[in-house]
Fold Apoptosis inhibitor 5-like.
Amino acid sequence: MADPSDEANHIEKLYEFGERLNESKDKSQNVKDYQGIINAAKTSVKAKQLAAQLIPRFFKFFPELSQPAIDTHLDLIEEEELGVRVQAIRGLPLFCKDTPEHIAKIVDILVQLLASEEFVERDAVHKALMALLRQDVKASLTALFKHIGSVDEPSTDEFIREKVLSFIRDKVFPIKAELLKPQEEMERHITDLVKKSLEDVTGAEFRMFMDFLKSLSIFGEKAPAERMKELIGIIEGQADLDAQFNVSDADHIDRLISCLFMALPFVVRGASSSKFLNYLDKHILPVSDKLPDERRLDLLKALAEVSPFTAPQDSRQILPSVVQLLKKNMPRRKTGDEFNFTYVECLLYTFHHLAHKVPNATNSLCGYKIVTGQPSDRLGEDFSEQYKEFTERLSYVEELTRATMKKLTQGMAEKNKAMAAAKSDEAKDTIKTEKQNTTTGLRTCNNILAMTKTLHSKTPSFIGDKSINLSWKEATKPAVPSSTPVAGAKRPANFSNGSGNMPSKKGRGGGLQNQLVNRAFEGLSQGGRSGGRSSGGGRSRGRGWGGRGRGRGYR
């Protein structure tokens, strides 16, 4: 234990050093005083706490003592006494106040301290980092993002990397408007930092960063088309659209579908989805029946939601694959083929919106007689067999759908009676969920009938507006402005992957919801297993796309 008289002497000396430095007009002449402060930092606990305040305060006046000053201060940060450590941490930003060349080094030190188990110490670290960000946001952000890593400069400490990501997400992103000034310059700088980091991220991290980029003003509603193209390019890169597709690679499938949903808001705003659609058409749609059920539904939902915004040339290219899928999913009478109502709803919706843009493309595919005056009408050729087959499938779908609607309506009446008789809250909740799922099933059926109705004509009219509201999406309420849900927000009861939101951990594509809807359908149609396949897994996928760690691998 330190002698009380020695401790008092050290404290008195420190005050003397500090007072002389305060009063000196040319502080650089007081080298002995500053050296005395450095020396006193190796004595008693109270002297160390006081020295932790004085060393950074006068640091800029003694460049010749910068190294011993910093080394001594770092020793104080490693002290056993918490009070000394906290005081030393609080002083770190002062080293950079007039000497910005030290920012990267001080950020590095603070980053290592993010792992502290002491709340008060961790809080001091957060405040010190925020102080540095306010002093020099560009240099501080650059130093922080180095700890997230990239392909060229991977992070060497995964635990610290996670701490830095949490700090950026929880402390930096929420006050971007305050920190990122001048706005356009700094938003561009942090965008470049994020883009570099995206070379080596998990699925959850990618979604977090994309949500942040979308919130920047440079990518806002008034942003030029090239900015939307930039964001789509980032998403396409993450989807790895240049990779060879393997239907057994569940991770790549997850990434592709997740990225397609993430691209939707930008496609809605006019960005091209050509590269995604080309990849889907060439690699995925032909083997979509080999995908796991929940991924297959995700894919068809994504395709349905993007279809209103496809360009005519993309619509013409992908339409044959969609018609083939329709035929696979709309059985002819007594074939025993599987029938899934939600798949058919997705595909019919996609078919209508693609065909609306290139109606004469359906002549050779479905046997229609649509005249546009173009050679692609192919009116001189005989496609009557295609028309016969396609309309037969439509008729059988309508028959199955009407029978299912009848059973669902009867079931709803029974559920209403059961609700009136239910005694416990648990029983009422169960029945309420069943009613909601039955309602969704009825919406699906109504949509199917609305979309098949016009397709029996030789010259059908295709739906190209918003008259059909997909069953998994909330009905639009004109009086309430639409908004993008924040990351982490809960989904509504009949959740979907709509609105550009990424799938939550608890299964994607409306896993549980569609599973229950299909149970309501089960046994009501006559097409083999008749929707007995689960449309959603409800399975947790852990850390994003297959939990593959970071980078292109993801597994």
Q: What stands out?
A: The longest helix spans residues 384-421.
